[in-house]
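Record format v2
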Amino acid sequence: MSENNGQKRMSVVCWSADLDRVWPVLILSTTAAASGLEVNVFFTFWGLRVLQRNDVRVTGKNWMQKGESLVDRGGTDHLKLGKIHFAGAGTKMIKKLADSYHVASPTELLDMAKDLGVNLHPCQMTMDLYGLTKDDFIDGLGAPMGAASFIDMAADSDITLFI
Amino acid sequence: MSHTSSPDRILDCRHLSCPLPVVRTAQAIKELDAGQVLLVMATDPGFALDIRAWSSRAGHDLVDVAEDGGAYHVLLRRS
């Protein structure tokens, strides 16, 4: 990465699709971008599913990938809590609370992140592993990339987070 | 000091939670010209601290922070 006139940078790894991890990824990313930082988020492993379109259900090319997608639904509308999910009841309750306290949903925050110029990069290797293609993802993403590209971004960043 | 009575734009962030008041403030102030003043109203208890941090980071002038019946009224001047 090159210099950018002293603008601060933040690079984040979004590793999980748990609601309670994705929420802070998006809250911190939007706030950093609003504060004038350049923000890069690398979505890898389970976290790649965060970028999946909400209306895409089965993904992958072979039976293993398709089977995995059936039990690992992607999209910001379908994130589950990492704890107290309770077969959906816990997640439903937290979403209801968030709604009544006017906490923005992950879907709203992801849209906001794009508007604010946050760079959202899917991990190429995980895309291959899951058999995901660009058509499975929401619009407005940065180029799919690998570990070396993230390390290059992180090496020039003032803040790096793994969430 | 600028005219508390006549901000150039008013942004109502009451009842919104973190990070919306700060993010909406950042989006709104972009639409002002340099030197113009934005009034933000917010009820998020963390906003008084957050807006100080944000304005100093983003480089805008925090003109005034007042509290009125549980709501913050914050004046910011675009740099």
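DSSP finds six helices and four strands in chain A.
Strands of chain A lie at 9-14, 38-43, 119-122, 159-162.
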